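Course assignment 3, question 2. Fill in each field.
Student: A.L.
Task: Predict the tertiary structure for the chain below.
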Amino acid sequence: MLLSGFIRLTRITPHLLAMWNGWMIAGIIHHVFGFRKREARSRIREVFPDLPEKDVRRIAWRSFRNLAFNAIEIIRAPSLSSAWESKYMDCEKTMDDIQAYTDTGRGVIVALVHAGNWDLAGVIASRRSIPAAFIARSQKNPLTNKFVNEMRSLRGSVIVDRDDPRFLPKVLEQLNAGKALAILIDLRSKTNVPDAEYLGKPANLSAGIVMIAQHARVPILPMALVRDGWFGHRWLPMKPIETQAGKNKKQERAEVLQALLDQFSGFVMDNPEQYFWYNKRWVLEPFEDTGTETD
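Answer field:
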């Protein structure tokens, strides 16, 4: 009830005021209640051991503030105008790159990490009539899950549940239909690739994204999302990667995954305030019983 009331209020509030409200709520949650603040700062120190404490605190706050801004923008997505997009979204080059793949009917996998407003990227792509599908895990709160999926499903985009027993056939169906499939790859996995390294550390990451590319024979386009100030957004295409027929599939999965991680690691190391350091499934935190990928 409280969430639905907040959503309705945010949608009728002028955009600047809504963002101010998000900033204030984030400040209270972060500075007063300290939500996961200790964990976030610890992770930043783990990746940047020589960083002064004031910079660790600044990065942790900016990261959490950006998450609040992300939420406000997603709530207001249905009312964001074309004029707002033109003014604040610097994404034409990346849109053209994605469209070039989908126009062939072949499909493309868009690889992302938790930086910038990853959900808004999907909404904008859908509004630009780019045929898209998204992989997501269901939220525990049914109302939150319904709202997030409604936003992601604007203009016909398809949501594939990461835990669906028919997950692989469903994502292959979307790619074979020539859609852009967006996947967040920086999620800790119980079935990990041995020796995978992210942010300069061993990481528990799956090469599922590469396995999908191998099956569908589609390229992977890594893309970094950047928030400029309160309102601006930039989409930065990175070097696309294609799998190749005839290679050892398990070895190729490890190699391609690492090539993706290297690109994203460089981005995060250069832009740490853009990254979301609060994820419960922290990729550098090992499981007690970690399995390894099989063929």
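Instructor remarks: The first helix runs from residue 2 to 12. The first strand starts at residue 89 and ends at 90.
Grade: pending
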